[in-house]
Amino acid sequence: MASTLWDEYQVSPVEVALPGGKVGLTLRAYRPASELTPTDIADREDDDAIFAGRTGRPMGVADEEELPEFQWTKEALDEVAAGPAEDEVAERAVEADEDAEAEDDEDEAVVSDEEVPMFLSHKGRLLLFLSAKGLADFVRSGAPHDLKQLEGWSKLAKSVKATDVVAGEDDAYELDLVVENLRGGPDAWDAELVLRAGEFARDVSYALRLKPVMVALSPGSPLDDLDDALRASEEGGMGAFFAKRKLKKIGAEQASIGWRSVIGKISGAVDWRD
C-alpha cells in the first residue's frame, strides 16, 4: 500500500542521518520548475551576509584586481541603437547584447521545463521528523509547508499513515559518515556513500536555496571534481585507472573540510520536529 500511495502522487519518503546521532524523515518530490513556487527564505538569515566583510577590508571596498571590467549598460546600448551606429565596436556591442538576451530567454525556457526537487520544508528550512508517526501527523494536520502546492496534495495528506512513511534504499542518506570516511584518504573512500551524499546535498540546497552549498558542489568545484573521479573509478576500465590516480592527488583534508562545511550548512537549515 505504501509504495502504491507514494507512486500515485510521485512523492517519496526520505531518511537522512546527520552528525550528532540524529536520523530524520522528510518527503521529497520532483516537478517541473515552472509548476513550483520556491520556498520563502525572507525570514532566514542571509547566507551571503554571513561571509561579507571577512576579507579584512571595509564592506563594499574592493582591490583593483577585483574591480569589474567595463560593460555596456542598457542605457548606453539603447542610446547607440537609437542613433546612427557608425562606431563598429558599438554596433557589435549592441548585437552581442541582443544575442545574449535571446540566449537567456532560451535558457530560461529550457530550465522552466526541467524537473527540480522540492522537500517537506517551510520558510527555507527542511522539516525533519524523528518518527514516522510525527511526520504522518504533521502532514494530516494541515500545517503550512512547501509541498502543499503540489497537485493532489490534499488527497495524499488525508491518506498518509505512519506505516506508510518508510524510505526506500535509494532514498536513505548517511551524511553523518561522510567526513570521517574522507579523512581516511583515497584508499578508504566509499564512493557510493559520498556520491549519494552529493545527490541529497544538491537536491536540498536547490530546494532550500542554500547558495553556499550550491556553489560548493557546482560543476568544476573541488567537491564536484571529487564526485567525478569517484564515479569514474567505479566504472572500471582505463578511465578508472586514471580516476584513481586523480583521487590520490585530491587531499583528504581538503575534501573532508569541504564536506564538513556543506553538512554544517544543511544541518543549520534543518527544523527538527516531534
Task: Write up this protein.
This protein is an alpha/beta fold and 274 residues long. It folds into two domains: 2-49 and 116-273, no CATH class; 56-113, no CATH class. Helices cover 51% and strands 14% of the residues. It has helices at residues 2-9, 47-51, 74-82, 88-113, 132-141, 153-159, 178-183, 191-208, 211-216, 222-235, 237-249, 252-268; strands at residues 11-18, 22-32, 115-119, 121-122, 125-129, 172-174, 270-273. The chain has a four-stranded mixed β-sheet with strand order 3-2-1-6. It has a three-stranded mixed β-sheet with strand order 4-5-7. Helix 3 crosses helix 4 (88-113). The longest helix is centred in the middle third of the chain and has 26 residues, at 88-113.
Query: What would the principal axes of the Cα set say about the shape?
Result: globular
Count the domains: 2
What is the radius of gyration computed over CA atoms, rounded to a whole number of angstroms? Answer: 23 Å
Model regions low in confidence, pLDDT < 50 over at least 5 residues: 50-70
The side-by-side strand order for the widest beta sheet comes to 3-2-1-6
Spatial separation of the terminal alpha carbons? 25 Å
Number of helices: 12
Number of beta-strand segments = 7
Mean pLDDT: 83
Q: Order of helices and strands, N to C? A: HEEHHHEEEHHEHHHHHHE
Structural class: alpha/beta
Amount of helix: 40-55%
Major sheet characteristics: 4 strands, mixed
- How much β-strand is present in the residues? 5-15%
